[in-house]
Amino acid sequence: MFDLDSVVDLDTYPIHRAGSPARAELVAEARQQMKAFGCFRISNFIRPEAIETMLAEATRLHPQTFWAEQEHNPYASAPDVSVPSNHPRNFMQRRMSGFINSDLLSQQSLLNQIYNSNVVTHFVWETLSTDRPVYQWADPLGRNPYGVMETDHYFPWHFDGNEFTVSILVQKAESGGVFEYVPDIRTPGHENYERVQQILEGGREGVRELDLLPGDLQLFKGRFSMHRVTRIVGPTTRYIALPTYVYDPWRMNSPHHSIQYYGRATDAHHQRAMVMSDGLLD
Ligand SMILES: O=C(O)CCC(=O)C(=O)O
Ligand SMILES: [Fe+2]
Fold first, then answer.
1. Position 279 in a domain
2. CA 276 remoteness from chain centre
3. Nearest to 217 by CA among 14, 74, 47
4. What are phi and psi for residue 164, nearest 5 degrees?
5. pTM, full prediction
6. What is the pLDDT of residue 227?
7. Ligand 1 environment, Cβ below 6 A
8. pLDDT in tens, 90-126
9. How far apart are CA 120 and CA 136, in angstroms?
10. 214 CA distance to ligand 1 middle (Å)
11. In a domain, 251, yes or no
């Protein structure tokens, strides 16, 4: 039987007590951060013992990491010959990073337990100030993987296939590995290619940095806020748990996106490939 209290510091952050003043205060603070910065962070949300257990799991699964060293555009979509070569859709960046795909986690995995917790999902939903329901994702590979990055690895600017991502740093790199993002640079129906191109070409206007610490909970809008992870310096592997949340639990990453990030696409990815209902590129 999963005990949320052994993982989340429910004494400080009683997310399980719907209606309690402490929870209402936490939700209000998270919403305020989300509105102001397009992202929020709750320090020491996950208990240190749980982080230890997650680190042991990630270390055990490390040999099964799918490593990518490849070029892709910020949408993880195929290049587009109908637009100029310097257009964001043709702006290729080299990524070196890995994932421990979600389907490698055991049922008892602490990361799976956190992800399957409806208390956590409900809390995530509430911080978003949205009247649309938010769900755990169907994507069998991308739903809650561990991101793995080693010396010199770099995760360039990109958008996610899912709307929202929680990140929980499990092990910090010695230096580098900083999460950078541009809040809400695109919105449904508006790609904002001009600003995206400025950032891809090195512009820093609107770029925010977040140097996470192990155990912090972060929530960001990966489908709308372009983001990256700066180059890893030093020998320590950076591990991060990445539970994802979506408006449409049935849809998955496009097969192209899934192959680039997670090394393969399943039959379900092919069956469910379709135009996104928000009209944005993958
Ligand atoms: O490692 C991180 O902090 C973010 C990873 C990420 O953006 C992704 O997996 O799509
Ligand atoms: Fe991402």
1. no
2. 19
3. 47
4. -130, 140
5. 0.95
6. 98
7. 147, 155, 160, 167, 179, 227, 229, 240, 242
8. 999 999 999 999 999 999 999 999 999 999 999 999 9
9. 10
10. 15
11. yes
